[in-house]
């Protein structure tokens, strides 16, 4: 899933400082799971803003709504009625949600309340880790199911580099060296010989370097 | 073969090579580089010009190489994967060749987190293995990295790479070295050796697989100025092992700088006489270039052979 984190409250307040009425829009998708922008967080943020603005003698009318998914036109339609008289929309979705709102409500000031960080998963409650760099051409079958593109700090495909020590990456003692993990797993699988194969450079044109990507499934298209 | 670098000729002749390192300055004057080059001229066969070492912005490796060359030493230009994509790398390396550079060292480069621009976006478009492979192909098959033909004047570099016997996983270190040799590395400079035992174990594995017959291995040595420097490396530089005895020896020394130089000389002699399969030494006197001539001389490696 997409992992996001709320921006500092001061930063969000700054974005809407001159607005009188604001709509806070949460999302029930990924950002709910990572406890950043679900219904609960949306309510909490709206009321925090109300209180802050009251204290500053600059009252704010804050209304809220949580979409099933903000990255789907169908689910943001219900906002049509809510946005009419607001000065701004604060989105608590990932960057996709923010852009969907900005696209649909062309005359509205739409701002992000979250920083969209990465795609990953939870390790223990309250902790998430990045696992995939969305490269568009998955090579996990060659690296024992561990992604060197994103989990190796240098995206080395023929690793490990000379900074790997005691199983940790040179960037920090808190970061596992992806290549140590790959090595251990390939060894356990009896496939170390695979690591001796030369891995050619990545075709980054399949990643974001080819411009924004599209995925099309004609078989399910309606028109 | 044309355009053979001096370093390559010495190594191919079976002579024990000596290389050193010149770190370009954090400003745009070449005065210091020229001074260091002049001082080392008769004592080393070639000198590495580091490429924004530890991710700190410095005068460019290629530009510094021009100054070194003008002062009579053959440069080994460094190219890190951190700072350039494959387009910039090829362009810069062709440029370097046109300026007379004949040796290149391919590195992944330290992560920018450690340098003076930790908020920079890194590149890592290709890795050092791929850089070695495509540079060799560029030379031998006249192809750009993309596979497009180079019609004429392909750069003919003597291709080097690094190996770190002290990083983990240890067993994979020799595999990775072999992989680099397969990819096209012709000479290898190792990380600074402080833990001789581990280096010897590494070389034993190298010899078992006959890798030393397919590539020239230069052992990295570093004179240390103080026990604090040794302790610092021991604790803070990843991928390095500094034995406690070494720290203690420097600590107990009356003149630690002298001791550091002596240790370095002992290491070189030991490596040259006792460790089979090593074809030269690479003296990394980081920010202490002045001491290189003395080390070379006292290690019995002076005068240097003449070639060409
Ligand atoms: S190889 Fe690419 S698609 Fe596969 S996990 Fe890594 S970044 Fe994601
Ligand atoms: S230490 Fe490991 S994870 Fe870190 S950059 Fe090197 S190979 Fe990649």
Question: Can you walk through the features of this model?
Answer:
Chain B: InterPro entries: FAD-linked_oxidoreductase-like, Mehydrof_redctse-like. Chain B: Pathway: One-carbon metabolism; tetrahydrofolate interconversion. The complex is a heterodimer of chains A (about 220) and B (about 300). Chain A is an alpha/beta fold. Chain A folds into two domains: about 1-120, Response regulator (Rossmann fold), CATH 3.40.50.2300; about 135-205, no CATH class. Chain A is built from eight helices and nine strands. In chain A, a hairpin with a 2-residue loop joins β8 (about 170) and β9. Chain A is elongated, with a radius of gyration of 22 Å. With about 300 residues, chain B is an alpha/beta fold. Chain B contains eleven helices and eight strands. Chain B has helices at about 5-10, 30-40, 60-70, 85-100, 130-140, 170-185, 195-210, 225-235, 245-250, 255-275, 290-300, and strands at about 15-20, 45-50, 75-80, 105, 160-165, 185-190, 215-220, 280-285. Chain B has an eight-stranded parallel barrel, surrounded by seven helices. In chain B, α9 (about 245-250) crosses α10 (about 255-275). Chain B is globular and about 60 Å long. The mean pLDDT of chain B is about 95. Chains A and B meet through β8 and α8 of A and α5 and α6 of B. One iron/sulfur cluster binds near residues 134, 139 and 147 of chain A.
Mean pLDDT across residues of chain A:
96
Main beta sheet strand tally, sense and closure of chain A: 4 strands, parallel
Q: How many beta-strand runs of chain B?
A: 8
Ends distance of chain A: 29 Å
CATH class of the largest domain in chain A: Alpha Beta
Low-confidence blocks of residues of chain A: none
Helix/strand order of chain A: EHEHHEHHEHEEEHEEH
Rounded radius of gyration of chain A (Å): 22 Å
In total, the number of domains of chain A comes to: 2
- Name the structural class of chain B: alpha/beta
What CATH architecture of chain B do you see? Alpha-Beta Barrel
Number of strands of chain A: 9
Terminal Cα separation of chain B, in Å?
A: 13 Å
Structural class of chain A: alpha/beta
What fold name stands as the CATH topology of the largest domain in chain A?
Rossmann fold
Form type of chain B: globular
What is the ordering of alpha helices and beta strands of chain B? HEHEHEHEHEHEHEHHHEH
Region (Disordered) (chain A): 202-223
InterPro entries (chain A): DUF5981 (IPR022026)
Pfam family, one (chain A): DUF5981
Organism (chain A): Desulfoscipio gibsoniae DSM 7213
